[in-house]
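In line with agreed milestones, the collection of sequences with tokenised folds has grown. One record among many is set out beneath this paragraph:
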Amino acid sequence: MGPTQLSDVEKAHILALREENVPVSEIMRRTGRGRSTILRLCKEARDLSPTVVPQYKKRPGRKRKVSQLTDKLLKLVVTRNPRLTAKELKSMYPELLKDVAIRKVQHCLKHHLDLRSRVAALKPLPTDKMRRKRLTFAKQHNWSVEQWKGVLWFDESNFRVVTSHRLRVRRPLKRNRYDPRHTISYCY
């Protein structure tokens, strides 16, 4: 994990400890921060009044093209409809994503929001004939819930053995693969 910025509370705490002449090694132990961080903060605070906490300088580098607010919006939209592609998202929000490449939208979904593109799971779609057979079977066998748990198949289903080009969905790794929003129903 990369370095994290000191909060204003942490800065004030470190400076207060330093004012009390607490050794740097003790401050390191109490705060969990490095020696150079503490010394740099004390050096910056030396030129300021004792009640002022030093602020961060503007960091170098280019600003993000996709703001954190836009990231939240993309996450909301994609969790509602995980089948949306980056191209569709860009066309849905032209004002927010006008200067952003489609590849950057994909990057944001994958790395910033942890919504990787995955192949949708296939789930056989029961036909009307299958539903009627299931209903008659259930009416004939008045079983308890425990007995029904032992039934694996009570009708015949066709399964696709060879895969073809399948639809992709955005799904977090920890979500259930067989959630209806992340599956494709098919029928022969």
Observations:
- The first helix runs from residue 8 to 19.
- The longest strand covers residues 116-119.
- The beta strands are 116-119, 121-124, 168-171, 183-186.
